[in-house]
TrEMBL record:
<dbReference type="InterPro" id="IPR041218">
    <property type="entry name" value="DUF5606"/>
</dbReference>
<dbReference type="InterPro" id="IPR049281">
    <property type="entry name" value="BVU_3817-like_C_sf"/>
</dbReference>
<dbReference type="Pfam" id="PF21186">
    <property type="entry name" value="DUF6852"/>
</dbReference>
<protein>
    <submittedName>
        <fullName>DUF5606 domain-containing protein</fullName>
    </submittedName>
</protein>
<feature type="domain" description="DUF6852">
    <location>
        <begin position="54"/>
        <end position="123"/>
    </location>
</feature>
<dbReference type="InterPro" id="IPR049280">
    <property type="entry name" value="DUF6852"/>
</dbReference>
<feature type="compositionally biased region" description="Low complexity">
    <location>
        <begin position="135"/>
        <end position="154"/>
    </location>
</feature>
<feature type="region of interest" description="Disordered">
    <location>
        <begin position="135"/>
        <end position="206"/>
    </location>
</feature>
<feature type="domain" description="DUF5606">
    <location>
        <begin position="5"/>
        <end position="51"/>
    </location>
</feature>
<dbReference type="InterPro" id="IPR049282">
    <property type="entry name" value="BVU_3817_N_sf"/>
</dbReference>
<dbReference type="Pfam" id="PF18347">
    <property type="entry name" value="DUF5606"/>
</dbReference>
């Protein structure tokens, strides 16, 4: 993720951007995203718009571009410095957005939206470091062969015959992590712990 937008928000009636600190009784405690980092209480009546939940309309009615991806495209094309501001001309602003989202919806994305986008990008890129996406770690091409176990004696084979169907202690669960209730195990034949019924002694009649 190029810029972390999870805690950043625009608040109605309050200029700039803010970092959400915590919820308060009568609103939200926020910190201004600037050099002063002033903390203040945003009243509950003010609308809080998280940047991570904002998207740009495209000509496909079923598709939008998340603001995080828009910021990534702007950075890749222009770097950390935005080429436009809210005071740029209409042509400069529309060309700017068309350069990063060629198929943006000209009818539903207003000029005021592009001005906000330029302003927000300037604030975020100034006070939040760009974080390039981490490259996926390549898996090892060859696996280490398992060590061969020594041959078991015939006596050991007989003792382990009944336990052969039980999973090993380090074997992954085949249930995908869902462990079913354990059924009571039936009494095993020849179990030395099992109690055999006492035999009655028979006496010969004299």
């Amino acid at each position: 993720m190029p810029y972390e937008l999870q805690e950043l928000a625009a608040i109605s009636g309050m200029p700039g951007l803010y970092r959400l600190v915590r919820a308060a009784r009568h609103g939200v405690l926020v910190e201004s995203l600037d050099e002063k980092a002033t903390r203040t209480l945003a009243p509950a009546r003010n609308k809080v718009s998280l940047l991570s939940e904002i998207s740009i309309y495209t000509q496909d009615p079923d598709q939008t571009v998340p603001l995080t991806e828009v910021f990534e495209r702007i950075y890749q094309k222009h770097g950390a410095a935005s080429p436009v501001t809210a005071k740029s001309s209409e042509g400069e602003l529309t060309d700017f957005l068309a350069g990063v989202i060629p198929d943006y919806d000209r009818d539903r994305v207003y000029l005021s939206d592009i001005k906000k986008l330029a302003t927000w990008y300037g604030i975020v890129s100034k006070h939040r470091p760009y974080q390039p996406a981490e490259a996926p770690v390549a898996e090892a091409a060859a696996e280490t062969p398992a060590a061969e176990a020594p041959a078991a004696s015939p006596k050991a084979k007989r003792k382990s015959a009944k336990a052969a169907e039980e999973p090993a202690a380090n074997e992954p669960l085949s249930t995908g992590g869902v462990i079913a209730e354990t059924d009571p195990a039936p009494a095993a034949e020849g179990n030395p712990e099992a109690t055999a019924p006492a035999k009655k002694s028979r006496k010969k009649a004299e």
